[in-house]
Design goal:
alpha+beta, about 100 residues
Length: about 100
């Protein structure tokens, strides 16, 4: 593949990316997000709660906010399985009765 083919392919990719960007903007979604305040680092949660049994954690009814890149999401009914990656750690979450707006995901 020559240099012109590479350049044309890159231009096509940029065109598609810009179209997707515009679609998000047209739907009122800020494609780059806004300020996000977390309550914990993922590594802190792992170290603080990894030794606690599931039932004990459920009884505490904790609410935490972490930041990371959602790498996968599988859902069925009221259950969702998420895999998130941060700079420090890869985490897997099970969410029940998840209340996320579609725009959030």
């Amino acid at each position: 593949m020559g240099q012109k083919d590479n350049q044309r392919e890159m231009n096509d990719q940029l065109k598609v990316r810009r179209e997707k960007l515009q679609l998000l903007k047209d739907e009122g979604i800020d494609p780059f997000g806004s300020r996000f305040d977390r309550t914990h680092m993922a590594a802190e949660l792992h170290s603080e709660f990894e030794a606690i049994e599931k039932d004990d954690l459920d009884a505490k009814n904790l609410e935490v906010t972490i930041a990371g890149r959602m790498m996968s999401k599988r859902g069925k009914g009221k259950l969702a399985l998420l895999t998130s990656v941060t700079v420090q750690v890869k985490s897997k979450f099970t969410c029940v009765k998840m209340k996320l707006a579609k725009k959030t995901i």
